[in-house]
């Protein structure tokens, strides 16, 4: 049997039971009116008592147990008062006890309902035992026993029926609530799906923008350098200027190819099937040839890395070299790429180039890590800049996004006329 409370299903929500209750009490009133040989004042008191008992059904206490107990005691009090003081008939007491049990099904849980049912049965049995009846002794006891048995069966039937109705109503309401929650959840999931789709589109746009900036921007920057060199040597050394123009033409063709790759959703990788070490060596060689800048590098033999990590390292280095060539006015760059053990990585506080001996703030890369990381540092001896005044550059933003997408971090430290240091850590997944 379900254990239900009035808090979930108010008695007033069962209109049929409320109508049935008033029909029973109205029947009791008519039976009292039709009884012969009774004083009018006694009839009025009985009708008033039954009316008060009926009015209690319009306002059942909902939550507080003490209020429910007082309410039930008031019902029993009215019934006992009508029996002992006003001589209420047996049939009216029968109907009052039935209504009392019906109401208890909406006040208490199953244990409380059974207590009220038992108390009603005892009250009715006590009433029959004390009521004077003019019949043979054997017949009186048979009459009393049959009435008690009939009353018991009626109460049990009402108890089971009402609880079954309440269980069915509660199940239906829970089903309706579940349908509403399902519809709400479906709408939320649809909104989330649209948001995820928009976010994925935005991320893909950002990725394409980074690829265009890192790849095409690097090539165009190199082409600009070659054209500037051609302009410088045009009058003093025409053959050398022609060489620079030819290289610029080749770079233009490479830029066009990069655009075609970007338009085709950047499906190919700039590594072109090469290992990261080989691709970086080619990048450094081409950069030195185009700019004349010296690159000192120390690249450790790396473990096999995911394709997205190889791409991120290559693009970060490519963008860093492009920025050095365009803005730093540097003569030398030092690059270090290695695997580090768990812990915190700190660098010396001075950039190791002639003419840049002003101490910088100690650099601490990230927080202590719980697994191995790929560590990349790019240091140049250029003119430096103020990082707080250069936060909107797309190149630096793209580098940070690449590192963050792999769960890593990118740190930049620079001061005017003191060069620049870029530190990158990318965590390696546990093997």
Compact description:
Helices cover 61% and strands 10% of the residues. It has 431 residues and is an alpha+beta fold.
Question: Features of this protein?
Answer:
about 60% helix; about 425 residues; alpha+beta; Heat Shock Protein 90; disordered N terminus; two-stranded antiparallel ribbon; about 10% strand; rod-shaped
Structure, explained:
The chain is an alpha+beta fold and 431 residues long. It has helices at residues 15-34, 40-55, 65-84, 90-104, 110-130, 137-233, 238-263, 276-291, 307-328, 394-405, and strands at 294-299, 332-340, 345-347, 363-365, 373-380, 409-414, 420-427. It has a five-stranded mixed sheet with strand order 1-2-5-7-6. Strands 3-4 form a two-stranded antiparallel sheet.
**For the terminal residues, how far apart are their CA atoms?**
56 Å
Q: How many DSSP helices?
A: 10
Biggest sheet, spatial arrangement of strands = 1-2-5-7-6
What share of the residues lie within helices? 55-70%
Strand content: 5-15%
